[in-house]
Amino acid sequence: MVAMAPTLASVMAACSETATSTDAVSLEAARAEHEAGRAVLIDIREPEEHATGVAAGARLLPMRQLSQRLHEIPTRADQPVLLICNTQNRSSATLRTLRERGYGHVRYVNGGMSEWAQRGWPMVKPPAGPGARVTP
Predict the structure, then answer these.
(1) 98-109 tens-digit pLDDT
(2) CATH number where 84 lies
């Protein structure tokens, strides 16, 4: 298995880089694609953040567990994957790491779960256990 957990230095460097328009998806588009079943939404926040609420149907894959659970990210190019964190900093950094490993179908969500919550969009309590998937 290839180690892929970004180091703090690489995350900080990536956070200061400008993302391209093909890297990001709007919060509205992400919600629509996810709820229609046309994209997999992966919440990379940590478990204590998940406890505040998650989008129904999202896969919970904390960033610090990514290297051990990389196999849980769909690899098919025709299966869009949307990464979401709290504000988009970690998801944009994780996107770059995944792109380096050939995941060209992955994008990150602008605004993150903090913006999702501010808009009053539905959130559910996360299930317990690693690899949990939130059922709608």
Answers:
(1) 999 999 999 999
(2) 3.40.250.10
Q: Please tell me whether residue 83 adopts helix, strand or coil conformation.
A: strand
Q: Mark residue 99 as left, alpha or beta (left: phi above 0; alpha: psi -120 to 50; beta: remaining).
A: alpha
The three-class DSSP label of residue 121 is coil
**Cβ(101)–Cβ(2) below 8 Å:** yes
State pLDDT tens for residues 117-132: 999 999 999 876 655 5
What is the distance between the alpha carbons of residues 119 and 26, in angstroms, rounded to a whole number?
Answer: 13
CA distance 126 to 136: 11
Domain that holds residue 81: 8-118
* Alpha carbons 15 and 91: distance in angstroms, whole number: 9
Q: Global pTM? A: 0.80
Residues in the chain: 136
